[in-house]
Automatic annotation (TrEMBL):
Residues 365-375 have a biased composition (Basic residues). GO terms for biological process: DNA catabolic process. Pfam families: Mutator, RNase_T. GO terms for cellular component: cytoplasm. It comes from Mytilus galloprovincialis. GO terms for molecular function: 3'-5'-DNA exonuclease activity; metal ion binding; nucleic acid binding. Belongs to the exonuclease superfamily. TREX family. This is Exonuclease domain-containing protein.
Length: 679
């Protein structure tokens, strides 16, 4: 195979000029031809997309790369501009003698076929045979080469990436016409086409049958399917499509008709080409290398600088990063010790990356990352709405943003291990979560906090019977004896001050707090805009009820009174907050079970934001009432959506205005099922 590389340019008179000095050029121009080969397959690509150094520049780069070795056989450039000539023309002077970068006077589109003809002719003059030219079908370069050199024995094959891209573009152009042609279906069709082409390399008949089967298969017709890949033929009773919505066959006859026009009427006649597709991915890799050496934000196009940069990219592709030292040596310079070390390191990195990318695991990882990026972008675009579009500033765009799913709080294991335990308890005006706090107490190993709070609502009879706390006029009484009390704002402020005095943030422990006390405390603190300040002084909560159910299973009752009687063999005056906290602290630290909280804290700790999230979930759930009542949405699904921080208006926004059901799946989850009457 060949690693031949012609580095030539043309001056204003059309005379060939060497890109490098003679010694460097002789290093780069080397032919390693296998004399036993009758011809070789080369891959062709044009680098206009990457190599324009500013928008509208009249310059193109084309390259030929051997299929087996992946080496650049030849590259050439066309430029319609020269900075020296342009400056001289503006001044009305004759250009000084220089190395002119302008070698083209025709249109930019005509550059590509001209470069193809030149490269093939140059290789022919060097007796380098070409049996097959692989590239896209967007240029007449191959036809012109055959016309100008009729003795060439060379075939043209299409580039797989361009063929697939053209099919995807046509499918997306059909999408507005067919409701069933979602993004998920387009991806499934494209994937099936890629698998079919891979399985039928060199098999023209297999391509023709595969094109028919790939369409019939997704519509539930399996007469042309093959058992090696068709799951329906293997198990007709339980088979479901793995990449179609809900695993079901497509139904639209209009969609099937249009797909048949695309795949059968247009692609079947070209089955011979499809059976012998090649890839110009190596050329695209070279284009990216050139883009790093001649970035778009720098204007190298009107000078000979670009030719050196492109040539260095070709050397890097063929020889690796060691080309710098070899060029230095061929010029009579020191190769450089550090340069050699650096090039060796980069070559090893490139080889390692190339090896991994060719493995099955590497390819799967690449597809997985691509899927994650696509899914993330789709979800974000649906959530954010239209943010950038032509003339969007002249319209009145939908600016409502769908909220993100609330993240699960993570705890620092080291912090929760050393955090002190603070047991707290509340007494309230009633048994509902909207009740007021009438007593707040907390107890740790070395300190206690206790205060009575004057409520803004009356204390229920049930609460009075339980707590023995009453309010008469401006007095609070416990067991009919007056007690000192504080107003809610002052009491909560004092409690936060008490929390701030701990050297390490404490963990608040309570009995049945996950269902009751946390929410009462949250409502009180939120009313005075103090909940954020409160959360900044604690790590989280632990509900001792859940812990004791785990540590001491099988009890008839897990009330605090029964736990004290069973584990401590004591009785006490329940429903006094201070006494409750003291007994609960003894329960969790001084029983035969050991320190039940510390031993199980990582499994039962929950975030200080938990009551806020519950409140938000409940608000979200109430918006789905109408949809649940008309059975458009199950309560379980509505609850999942509510816990994902979604309201019914967000689902409507996703479906009606932002990409239909695909938008809903992109933002929520791919398996979410919802009936149309919900919207």
């Amino acid at each position: 195979m060949v690693t031949y590389n012609i580095l030539i340019e043309y001056d204003r008179d059309g005379q060939k000029m060497l890109t490098f000095p003679r010694r460097i050029n002789s290093f780069n121009n080397k032919i390693l031809v296998n004399k036993e080969e009758e011809g070789m397959v080369v891959m062709l690509d044009y680098g206009g997309k990457f190599h324009w150094t500013y928008k509208g520049c009249e310059r193109r780069v084309a390259s030929l790369i051997g299929q087996k070795t992946g080496k650049v056989l030849h590259h050439t450039m066309r430029s319609g501009d020269c900075r020296v000539c342009s400056i001289a023309n503006r001044k009305g002077e004759v250009p000084r003698k220089h190395k002119c970068s302008k070698n083209w006077t025709g249109s930019a589109k005509a550059m590509e076929p001209d470069m193809v003809v030149q490269m093939i002719r140059d290789l022919k003059e060097q007796n380098v045979p070409i049996s097959e030219l692989a590239g896209d079908d967007d240029s007449t370069g191959y036809n012109r080469a055959i016309k100008e050199m009729p003795d060439l024995h060379m075939e043209k094959t299409s580039d797989r990436n361009h063929v697939t891209k053209n099919i995807v573009n046509k499918l997306y152009s059909m999408k507005p016409k067919h409701k069933e042609l979602s993004v998920m279906v387009i991806n499934a069709i494209t994937r099936n086409f890629a698998y079919m082409v891979d399985q039928n390399k060199g098999n023209q008949t297999g391509i023709e049958n595969g094109l028919r089967a790939s369409i019939d298969h997704i519509f539930g017709e399996h007469a042309h399917c093959v058992q090696s890949w068709c799951g329906y033929l293997k198990d007709k009773t339980t088979y479901k499509h793995s990449s179609l919505p809900h695993g079901k066959d497509l139904k639209s006859l209009d969609l099937k008709s249009d797909l048949e026009k695309l795949f059968l009427d247009k692609l079947v006649p070209n089955s011979k080409k499809l059976a012998n597709l090649a890839s110009s991915q190596a050329n695209e890799s070279l284009n990216m290398t050139i883009a790093t050496k001649a970035p778009k934000y720098k204007h190298y196009s009107a000078s000979s600088s670009l030719s050196y940069r492109v040539s260095s990219a070709v050397l890097q592709k063929n020889e690796g990063y060691s080309y710098v030292s070899e060029v230095h040596e061929s010029s009579g310079l020191s190769p450089g010790t550090e340069t050699l070390k650096r090039s060796l390191k980069l070559n090893r990195k490139r080889d390692r990356k190339s090896t991994v990318s060719k493995t099955r695991e590497g390819k799967k990882q690449r597809l997985l990352l691509k899927k994650k990026r696509s899914s993330k972008n789709s979800g974000m675009e649906v959530r954010e709405g239209k943010t950038y579009e032509s003339e969007i500033g002249l319209e009145h765009p939908d600016q409502e943003e769908i909220p993100e799913v609330m993240e699960i709080d993570k705890f620092d294991k080291e912090a929760i291990t050393v955090a002190p335990l603070l047991v707290f308890d509340l007494e309230t005006t009633g048994l509902s979560r909207s009740s007021d706090i009438i007593q707040l107490a907390a107890c740790s190993k070395d300190s206690t906090f206790d205060t009575y709070i004057l409520p803004s609502q009356p204390i229920s009879k049930e609460a009075t019977n339980i707590t023995k706390i009453t309010v008469r006029g401006n007095n609070m009484l416990y067991n009919s004896k007056p007690v000192n009390f504080k107003y809610p704002h002052q009491a909560l402020t004092d409690f936060i001050t008490f929390l701030s005095e701990f050297s390490c943030k404490p963990i608040l422990v309570g009995h049945n707090i996950k269902r009751f006390d946390c929410h009462i405390l949250y409502n009180a603190l939120r009313f005075y805009n103090m909940y954020s300040e409160f959360c900044s002084h604690i790590i989280g909560f632990v509900d001792s009820l859940d812990v004791f159910k785990h540590v001491v299973p099988g009890l008839s009752s897990y009330s605090q009174t029964n736990l004290v009687d069973t584990l401590l063999d004591e009785t006490y005056a329940a429903h006094n907050a201070l006494e409750d906290t003291r007994l609960l602290f003894r329960l969790i630290t001084c029983t035969s079970q050991g320190n039940v909280i510390s031993d199980n804290i990582t499994d039962f700790i929950f975030s200080s934001n938990y009551p806020h999230n519950c409140h938000m979930h409940q608000d979200n759930l109430t918006t789905f009432s109408e949809a649940i009542n008309c059975k458009a949405l199950s309560k379980a699904t509505a609850l999942k959506a509510a816990r994902s921080n979604l309201r019914l208006c967000h689902l409507k926004l996703s479906i009606i205005e932002r990409n239909g059901l695909d938008g809903l799946r992109a933002h929520c989850c791919p398996n979410l099922r919802i009936k149309e009457k919900c919207v």
